[in-house]
Amino acid sequence: MQKLSEADIATALRELPGWKVENGKLHRDYQFPDFIHAFGFMATAAIGIEKRNHHPEWFNVYNRVRVDLTTHDSGGITSKDVELAKALDAIAVRMQ
């Protein structure tokens, strides 16, 4: 999997509201109504994540989930990260 160019990443970010590049990774902070919704988001997302075999770096505190996406084997952001970001956003909408 080839790492995306800066231009490709900029184009992808136009389709990913709330996402930005931070420390060379796609980054987003989600906020949910409470811990149950945040945990539900992570548990629901875990099924698709495992099927993709593409795992995020994420961190949960109470109602917040911090997500960073990068493809370590490629040394940066790839289309796999963009697709996972879109999938996570779709799940997050259902958990709000």
Q: What features would you describe in this structure?
A:
The protein is built from three helices and four strands; from the N terminus they run αββαββα. It is an alpha+beta fold. It has one domain: Gyrase A, domain 2 (2-Layer Sandwich). A four-stranded antiparallel sheet has the order 1-2-4-3, with helices on one face. The mean pLDDT is 96.
> Helical content, roughly?
40-55%
Largest beta-sheet details:
4 strands, antiparallel
**What is the count of structural domains?**
1
Return Rg in Å. Answer: 13 Å
CATH architecture: 2-Layer Sandwich
List the helices and strands in order. Answer: HEEHEEH
Which topology does CATH recognise?
A: Gyrase A, domain 2
**Main sheet: strand order:** 1-2-4-3
**How many β-strand runs?**
4
* Mean pLDDT over the full residue set: 96
- What percent strand? 15-25%
Any idea what the CATH superfamily is called?
Transcriptional coactivator/pterin dehydratase
CATH class descriptor name: Alpha Beta
For this structure, the quaternary state is single chain
Number of helices: 3
Q: Which structural class do you get from the secondary structure elements?
A: alpha+beta
The 3D shape can be described as globular
Distance between the termini: 33 Å
Low-confidence parts: none
Q: In a few lines, what is going on in this structure?
A:
With 96 residues, the protein is of the alpha+beta class. Helices cover 46% and strands 22% of the residues. The longest helix has 18 residues, at 35-52.
